[in-house]
Amino acid sequence: MNEEFRVIFDYMESCMRDMAHDREHIWRVLAAAVDIARNIPEKVDIRILTAACLLHDIGRQEEDADPALDHAVVGAEKAYHFLTESGWSEVDAGRVRDCIAAHRYRSGCKPPATIEGKILFDADKLDVTGTVGVARTLIYEGAHNEPLYLTGANGMPSEGDLPGEESFIHEYHFKLSKLADRFFTEYAHNIALRRMQAAEQFYLALKSEITESCEMKKRLLENWTD
Q1: What is the pLDDT of residues 179-225, one digit of tens each?
Q2: Which of 58, 132, 141, 176 might form a disulfide with 146, Cβ 3.0–4.6 angstroms?
Q3: Where would I find the H helices in 66-166?
Q4: What is 128-226's CATH topology?
Q5: Cα–Cα distance measured from residue 188 to residue 192, given in angstroms and rounded to the nearest whole number
Q6: Which CATH number among 1.10.3210.10, 1.10.10.10, 3.40.710.10, 3.40.5.50 corresponds to the domain 1-111?
Q7: Where is each HD/PDEase domain found (predicted)?
Q8: Tens digit of each residue's pLDDT (9 = 90 or more) over 15-36
Q9: Is 122 exposed, middle or buried (0-12, 13-18, 19+ CB in 10 A)?
């Protein structure tokens, strides 16, 4: 790692407190991004892409402290100011800022306009697919006191569609299982399809075990009321 990126990496580490978005997540995103860049026909500015990957989650602390904030927007501005203060031109720092501002999956967010932004988006989303994505989601939801699942009036696990539900089942059903449709590059899309098969197997096994446990619970409660 050259000195320019060492400085960026050290700054990134000083901003990270979330175990689901730790430095290993950053490394995985960067490695995936470089791999994508090497396997698509478009010309990619690796310097811009690398800086954007390293800094894309530096706004997480602010969003955790105030959920009304968008970590992509906050992080984009933090990255811009840090880079310009570190000697980057306003033009290049602005390109990094644009990539970071557009990397979020949530609806209503402006999609990336540059190839570097699209690669960052795809690389970041790849880290939510597969078993790594399942594990990261469980870590994140546990840290935010969100349950594995909720049960409906019938005592059986919901499909994640109860009013106001926030649970792993909800997150998988409405986000993780639909990620394949959101990729910008065919190369990343194909990787995602392969990884999502493993995530689907885990989800189905989890639902089966949860359903079995809920059925046992119902029988237990019925016996208690006899």
Answers
A1: 888 899 999 999 999 999 999 999 999 999 999 999 998 888 888 86
A2: 141
A3: 71-85, 90-101, 115-126, 130-143
A4: Methane Monooxygenase Hydroxylase; Chain G, domain 1 (1.20.58)
A5: 6
A6: 1.10.3210.10
A7: 18-138
A8: 987 776 888 999 999 999 999 9
A9: buried
Q: How far apart are CA 139 and CA 128, in angstroms?
A: 12
> What are the tokens at 156?
């059986």
Measured from the Cβ of residue 79, the count of other Cβ atoms closer than 10 Å reads: 28
Q: What one-character-per-residue DSSP string does 140-200 give?
A: HHHHTT--S--B-TTSSBP-S-STT--SHHHHHHHTGGGGGGG-SSHHHHHHHHHHHHHHH
Q: Token pair 């696990």 is at which residue?
A: 157
